[in-house]
Sequence to fold (88 residues):
Amino acid sequence: MKSQKAELTQAQKDELKAFASIPDDEIDTSDIPEVLDWSGAVRGLSLMSPDERRKAMEELRSRRSKDIPSGDWTRYEWAPPTGYIGAY
Fold:
């Protein structure tokens, strides 16, 4: 059963219009790390069926594991992003 989508209030619509009118160069993104390497990104991952998503994620995991033969991510200072689909 799908949930009902609530309509936006006029105040919310006005706020979204105000945000949309801000030029990109005036938005402070200094607290957000920029992803420069999108070579492993998967387009539409969240729109895939569960079987397609599982297959795509297995492929991504195997690609990452080839970089570190033991697959032991805990030995490194960095960790692969979690919950951030396009960062692989």
About this structure: Residues 49 and 55 are 10 Å apart (CA to CA). The longest helix spans residues 50-67. The chain has a mean pLDDT of 75.
